[in-house]
Amino acid sequence: MLRIPYFLSFLGVLLSFLCFSCTPSKSTIAQESRSAQLLDSLIAEKRFVITLDRAMPMMTNSMQSLANAGLFPPGSSPSQIYLSGGNNQLEIKGDSAIANLSYFGERQMGGGYNNNDGGIEFKDVAKDWEYEKDDSKGVHTYNFDIRNKSETYQVTVRLFPNLRTTVQVMSNQRFNIDYQGNVAALEK
């Protein structure tokens, strides 16, 4: 009968240890606050660069066939492809947007022969800017339309307080694709 109190005291110590280890430290909270303040300043200046490290194309039978053939980089799957090299970027400078993004997916039309524009590229003043902030979560959302010489894109950018981002690109000639990455200040 004396074993139950020892068990309960051990359980109490274990639970208190778990509770203290799960609470965020002051340095973690301070870092999150600094990141959120940096993001707010980047949004106010409307001058930032997003470096994308993952592409998430629409899953189709063709993408699965490419995966079965072993044509994706190591660790990647048909629905999540790891990007390397830092060349996949989206820059926002005022009302202008500049992008050079790798594209994985299917074209619905266009492209032509000897076309070197396999990725998503644009550099122009964007149209129909919409901005929204979810104050409860600290998430900033931009929507805009932009054209290059042959395609029209609808772009949605979500910026999170931890400086992570998601970018969704819809095209009039390709299947949709999403990206994930980090946002940083654009050097002047």
What does this structure look like?
This protein is an alpha+beta fold and about 190 residues long. The protein has three helices and ten strands. Strands 1, 2, 3, 4, 5, 6, 7, 8, 9 and 10 form a ten-stranded antiparallel beta sheet that branches. The N and C termini lie far apart (about 75 Å). The model has no long low-confidence stretch (mean pLDDT about 85).
**How far apart lie the N and C ends?**
73 Å
- Structural class determined from secondary elements: alpha+beta
The helix content, as a percent range, equals 25-40%
Mean pLDDT: 83
Give a short overview.
With 188 residues, the protein is of the alpha+beta class. The chain has helices spanning 3-22, 26-45, 61-68, and strands at 47-57, 81-82, 89-93, 96-101, 120-125, 127-134, 139-147, 152-159, 164-171, 177-185.
Key words describing this protein structure:
ten-stranded antiparallel β-sheet, single chain, 10 strands, 188 residues, 26% helix, alpha+beta
Topology:
Layout: H1 3-22, H2 26-45, E1 47-57, H3 61-68, E2 81-82, E3 89-93, E4 96-101, E5 120-125, E6 127-134, E7 139-147, E8 152-159, E9 164-171, E10 177-185
Antiparallel strand pairs: 1-2, 1-3, 1-10, 3-4, 4-5, 6-7, 7-8, 8-9, 9-10
